[in-house]
Amino acid sequence: MIDFSCADFTFPLLDRKQSLALLHMLGFTHVDIGLFARSKTYSPSALCASPAAYTRAVREDLERENLRPADVFLQIGADPPEASANDPSPSVRAQNRDVFRAAVDFAAALQCPHFTGLPGVYHDRIARPADWELAVEEAAWRKALCSSAGIRYAVEAHLGSICEDIDSTLRFVTDVPGLTLTLDYGHFIFQGVPSEQVHALARHASHFHARAGARGRLQTPLTENEIEFKGALAALRDAEFSGAIAFEYVWIDWNQCNRCDNISETILLRELFATLLLNSPAPSIAPELRASR
Fold first, then answer.
1. Which of 35, 43, 89, 187 sees the fewest Cβ atoms within 10 Å?
2. How many domains are there within the chain?
């Protein structure tokens, strides 16, 4: 049975305790933790300032709501180009490695089996082949560090990254042996890539980000969705996918990603996935939330 998870960063206006309580009320047993520079609930700088105390507080909050982490998703900069994995500056990359070590220790202490990072971006001041090689080098280092902690490492191919299309994404996982993907169809559908082409990435996926999307819209209500989820799940099944499916609606002022009712859309999409998977019933919703529907 595939585990269902939900991203804590789906509800950024709530503090950590509130968002975890909401996930518990929605019937989730797993959570994806977004360790983001822009996050007020899980901040890399706060972790690095006091690793032991920070980890202990997060673990207590998770245990209070009977939630287990399915993934730790690290974004060191406020935006992907900031402090990117393949930043041309050696000092920035060294600082990134310090943060990454702390984040892996954090994930290991929480017994989280999976870790997601970003592959990197192209920079104007460096030739593209050199930029690519830096990204490969850093991804290989990150993958090795995670492996040594018993954690699976993946990158998310995304808009604006060096893995923005199918070919570059396949090339990247080939250049970094053992690297896997946190697969989000939305970044490809947004560009007009048909779902049938994205299915080729399923064999490299170790984690799956689920939300509705369409051409030119990274995130939509389910009624306007253009992602072929039935085919995506079939591709994952054929690839013997053993990771978690994380419902990952976001609420940010970017690409109109603040125009969805994230609670309702998460419930609806989870019910659709439970139906498509047949043997995975949707988690029970707390009575007070069920009545509100």
1. 89
2. 1
pLDDT band at residue 244 under the 50/70/90 scheme: very high
Instruction: Provide the pLDDT for residue 283.
Output: 66
Which domain, by its residues, includes 41? Answer: 4-292
Task: Give how far the C-alpha of residue 86 lies from the chain's centroid of Cα atoms, to the nearest Å.
Answer: 19
Give the HSE-up count for residue 210: Cα atoms under 13 Å, Cβ half-sphere: 28
Helix (H, G, I), strand (E, B) or coil at 36: strand
Model pLDDT, residue 293: 46
What CATH number did the domain enclosing 277 receive?
Answer: 3.20.20.150
Give the pLDDT band (50/70/90) at residue 286.
low
Q: Whole-angstrom Cα distance, residue 283 to residue 267? A: 10
Q: Is the pLDDT of residue 285 over 90?
A: no
CA-closest candidate to residue 29, choices 282, 273, 237, 262? 282
Q: How many of the other CB atoms lie within 10 Å of CB of 248?
A: 27
> What mean pLDDT is reported for the chain?
94
Answer yes or no: pTM beyond 0.85: yes
Q: What is the pLDDT averaged over residues 181-188?
A: 97
In the chain, the DSSP E strands lie at: 4-7, 30-36, 68-75, 114-117, 152-155, 180-183, 205-210, 245-247
**3-state percent breakdown (helix, strand, coil) of the chain, nearest 5:** 45, 15, 40
Residue 168: strand, helix, or coil: helix
Give the contacts of 74 (CB within 8 A, at least 6 positions apart). 35, 36, 44, 99, 100, 103, 115, 116, 117
Listed residue (145, 146, 172, 174) closest to 161, CA to CA: 172
Tokens of 209: 């980000």
Cβ-contact 51, 106 below 8 angstroms: yes
